[in-house]
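Moderator note: this is an archived Q&A kept for reference. The question asked for a predicted structure of one protein chain; the sequence and the answer are reproduced below.
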Amino acid sequence: MKRFAICLILFLIGVSSLVPITGCGKEEKKQSEFAVGNWKQTINRNFILLIISPQGNWNSSVKIADATSKIVKSKGSAKGTWHIEKGQMIFTVLESDIEEIWGKNATTFLDIVELTENLMKLREESGYVAVWQRTISKKSTAALEEIASTVSMGPVVVNLNKNRSNDKDRYLCLDISLILKELMPGQEIPPIHPKAREAAIIFLSSLVFHNVKDFDSIKEQNKALVKVINPYMEGFIKEISIEHVIVATEIDMVEEFIIEHTMTAEELALKAEEELALKAEEEAKD
């Protein structure tokens, strides 16, 4: 009986010692699954993309943005291997031409502060916590509904009217979005009628600098613009949102505005992400 009791105690000790080990293994597996995917981080004007593959490889690239948040050029790229061990995410750099971010041949141990489906927080040795956000290519239903209620007219540029013939030329540059009224189930959003844009340009061209000299003045013109455009949008417009506005005196500023707002930073970032993902796939095949 005494021998049985000793065996039972030893068995229970053995089982209890296995529990934390098993639990740790499951946690690391779950974290590894969350880690796989495409991530982004913004540091000052550096836009960092990170693609983590389930095969234990990663690729990263850095884009530089100007003051308007438009990504203008690539800074470099890096790649290596990764794994998770004892609550740390370990990156080994195999190749890098952006050594201020990914040091060549370096191995970095980062404490996992938080790792969820859409957020990754990693603490560096200095104590700094880097925050990564997952890039999502497929929008949720809620996001699609939100986008569906807003229609972009894109950049609109007009030469403002003059009070006197000797007044200098001023160009009103606007990035306009139409916020629509709530649609009935199954009801389709009407396309922007060509005459709606034409009517907007004619109306805005009739304004003088005094009409758009400050935020309150532009807000008043917004209300009038809704009445001008709505007949061509079947009355669907609830209000007009002006994302960006400048009054330029030089044609160069006008050209910069058009270029900046023809392709958004998100579109450029998505394009960069797709290029990096394609590169990673090609390297994986090799």
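Archived answer notes: The mean pLDDT is 77.
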